[in-house]
Specification:
Blueprint (H helix, E strand, L loop, with lengths): L6 E5 L5 H11 L4 E6 L2 E5 L19 E10 L3 H11 L7 E6 L16 H12 L23 E9 L2 E8 L24 H12 L8 E5 L5 H8 L3 E5 L6 H4 L4 E4 L16 E4 L5 H12 L8 E7 L9 H9 L5 E5 L7 E7 L26
Parallel strand pairs: 5-6, 8-9, 8-11, 9-10, 11-12
Antiparallel strand pairs: 1-3, 1-4, 2-3, 4-7, 6-7, 12-14, 13-14
Helix pairs in contact: 2-3, 4-5
The structure holds S-adenosylmethionine.
Length: 378
């Protein structure tokens, strides 16, 4: 394809459409909303300047996005797949992503975003009808294998059973490598809460460089699914929560429970902790104020964080840039946010200090007549 298309598609949570529109209105005011459904939006972009193939939408609420080539209608996956390849003629497709748009808010009547049978059938039909199978990457027949960075991915969004949107993107970020930005995570049978999924996805998406054996504090840790994901990576976890932890988590030798509210924990408890995970069921401002009090304390050196900010009201989505600026103001130079597949009405913020510089040690003032100690690095 010599000229990039003028349309862009975006998928998101049902309910997050207004948040996506708000982000795009601020960042790309010339884009115009075109065809849309709950959880699925398309935009018409100006002819010039052309977007690059690997453009970064920099959206918190978009789960995935790419160029849109248009829609196809048909009554069977085979019929639809043949039309898809007509629309995509000439595209050097290496990988095929077929995935449904969300049909409900996460959690509503147990709905969880993810691949479904229709997506597998669509993928199989697309593979079967692919006009240039030799171009496909090794493993492309398996929808659960991620695309490699740089590969051109054909996107097929199952908007309705008989209506697919066809598009493409260049795989780059972690979410862009998975169909619809969704990793195929499965809740382990021994997980004590679905927060396991949220934390596992957050760790994979953020790629925070937390070494095995690192000391991690989790605020809002009960009953403990998230702590289980952290413990499974070999971290030493201090869970802070006034509520009861599940006995299976309490029994883990690397887990310690401080059965308190975050505000009741003495700052020196955080002295040896370098990583913070926060998942409290409170407003974003409450979470940020609680975290600020910890990370800005002179005795505390937190290198990186994963914060869940609950959007108690969708209107708070507009304030996300302000929340991120607040986190940056504490000295975190890498701050990113995403509404994860396993987030409900909430977002995940990943923050990192790179390079990490510990705060200078506090020293008592020298008494009169004493030579002050020589400064030390550390
Ligand atoms: C969504 S649940 C956390 C789920 C947990 N991360 C898991 O993996 O199972 C929210 C938790 O935040 C806790 N919480 C609320 N306010 C808190 C505070 N000020 N300090 C510590 N925990 C708090 C609640 O007790 C509740 O257990």
């Amino acid at each position: 394809m010599n000229v990039t298309p003028q349309f862009v598609f975006v998928t998101c949570q049902v309910g997050a459409g207004a948040a996506v529109k708000g982000e795009i209105a601020r960042a790309c005011p010339q884009w115009r909303l075109a065809f849309s459904r709950p959880g699925f939006l398309t935009f018409k972009c100006p002819a010039e300047p052309r977007l690059s193939e690997d453009f970064d939408l920099q959206s918190v609420f978009a789960r995935t996005y790419g160029f849109s080539l248009g829609t196809v209608r048909g009554s069977s996956p085979e019929e639809l797949a043949r039309q898809v390849w007509q629309l995509a003629a000439g595209l050097p497709v290496r990988r095929i992503h077929a995935f449904p748009r969300d049909t409900s808010e996460p959690g509503y009547r147990d709905f969880e975003p993810g691949l479904n049978e229709a997506a597998w059938a669509a993928h199989a039909a697309l593979i079967q009808n692919c006009p240039q199978p030799a171009l496909l990457a090794p493993g492309a027949t398996d929808l659960k294998r991620p695309a490699r960075r740089g590969e051109l991915v054909l996107d097929c969004v199952l908007v309705e059973p008989t209506l697919w949107c066809v598009g493409y993107h260049r795989a780059k970020s972690i979410p862009s490598r998975w169909p619809g930005g969704m990793m195929p995570l499965e809740l382990p049978p021994d997980a004590v809460s679905r927060a396991w999924l949220k934390t596992e996805e957050a760790l994979r998406w953020s790629e925070l460089p937390i070494p095995a054996g690192a000391r991690v504090a989790e605020i809002g840790s009960a009953p403990g699914g998230s702590s289980q994901a952290l413990l499974a990576r070999g971290f030493d976890v201090t869970g802070i929560d006034p509520a009861e932890m599940h006995p299976a988590v309490l029994a883990h030798p690397n887990f310690h429970h401080l059965r308190k509210r975050s505000t009741q924990v003495r700052r020196r408890e955080f002295r040896k902790i370098r990583w913070l995970v926060v998942d409290m069921n409170v407003t974003p401002n409450y979470t940020l104020t609680a975290v600020e009090a910890i990370v800005t304390h002179p005795l505390v050196n937190i290198r990186g964080m994963l914060l869940t900010l609950k959007l108690t009201d969708w209107r708070l989505a507009e304030r996300v840039p302000e929340y991120l600026d607040r986190v940056r103001s504490w000295g975190y130079n890498i701050v990113r946010a995403r509404q994860l597949q396993h987030n409900r009405r909430e977002i995940c913020v990943a923050a990192l200090q790179k390079p990490f510089r510990r705060k200078p040690l506090l020293r008592k003032p020298a008494r009169r007549g004493q030579t002050p100690p020589a400064p030390q690095n550390g």
